[in-house]
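Both lines are given unchanged directly below:

***
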Amino acid sequence: MEGANMELKNGHVEENGKKPTKKQKSVFWTYVLWLVGGLLGAHHVYLGRDVQAFVYFSTFGGYFGLGWLRDIYRIPAYVRDANEDYAFLNEFKQKIRANRKPPFSTVRFAAENAVAYLWAELFRNAIPEDEVFGINFRYLLILTPLVIALGVWTIGNIGREQGSIWLALGSAYLFYPTLTYIGDDTVWLLLMVVAASLSFDTFSKQWRLKPRKKRSLVRRIVYLTLASAIFLCMLGCYLYFNAVITDSEGEEIKLSEAIQHFLTSPIWVDLKASLEATWNQAKHQGFWATWAQLVDLTDPRGEINAYKVLGLSQTATQAEVTARWRALSRDNHPDKIKGNEVERRQAQEKFMEIQQAYEILSKAKNRRQRRNRKSDP
C-alpha cells in the first residue's frame, strides 16, 4: 500500500535510527499543566496539540471532564509523540504496515459524535429566536450540518490520523431534509451526527504520514484565540437571546431579562450598598482593620447569636445575661412541658440552646477579664 513501505521522515523516524533533535517535552510539566489548566486544554497547548486543546476548551474539559480524566494515563503517550520518540515512531510504523487505514476506535468515534452534537446544539441555540434589528437570523439553521461536519472532522484529525471533511459534510446535508418527517430535533440531530461520523470513519480517515506544518507560537495563539472567540460568541448569544430560567410557578423567563431584574432587586441593592460601604471603610481604615471587623461580623465565637437566643442586646451586662438565662431556663425547662413527644423534644432543644448561649457569653466574660488583668500595669 502507499506509505506502508516508505520511510517516515521530517518529524517521524528514519531507517538509520537517528532520533530527531529538538527540545524535549516534559512529562512532569505536562501533568502540572493538566492539573492546573487541563480542563481548558493547557497541557495540549504545551505539547503542540492545539486542535485537541480547543476541543477541551469548547467542550468543558473533553466533554465535561471525561477527556481530562482519560488523559491521566494518556499523557505519557502524548509526550512520546510530541518528542518523536524513536520507540513510539517504530510502533507507529508497525501500525501502518499492519493496517491500510487507521482501525476503528470506539473512543474516537464516540468523541466525534459527542463533540459534533454539542457544537450543533450550541450553534442552534445561539441563533436568536426573535428578529434582531428587524433581521431574522433563523435562516442560519441551514448551516447546522456544516457545524456537525466540523465537529466530526476536528476530532478525526487529532493526532496521527487525518481525513477530508467533504464526505462528512455531504452525509450531514443528505439527512438534513428528514426533519420534516422525523419531527423531533434531537433524533434529527443524532441522525446527521451519526451519518457524518460513519462516512468519515469509513471512507475519509487515513494515517497522517507527515507531521503538521510547524507554526510560530504567535500564529498558534492567534488561531486559538480566534477559535475560542467564535465559541464564546456563540455561547454568549445563547445566554443573551435564548437561555431561560424557571421560576417557582413553573414559568420560563429569559435569562437576560432575569439578570436585568436582579440588578434592580432589593437583595442586590442591599448587597451592593454593603460592598460599597466595606470598600469605603477599607480605604479609610485600612485593609486589615476592615478584615478584622468582617471576621467579627461572621460571629466566629457565636456571641452575636448567643445574645439573640437570650433576647438581649450586645451591650447587656453580665448581670442582665445571668438574670435572663435563669428566667428562660425556668420557663423552658422540659419537665414543665406536658405535651406530646414532639413538643417535649422541641422544648429540650430550646433548653439546650439557652444553656449553650449562656456558656458562650460566660466564656466571653472570662476572656475579657483575663485580657484586662494582663493589660493592667
In short: The longest helix spans residues 341-375. Confidence is low (pLDDT under 50) at residues 1-7, 9-20.
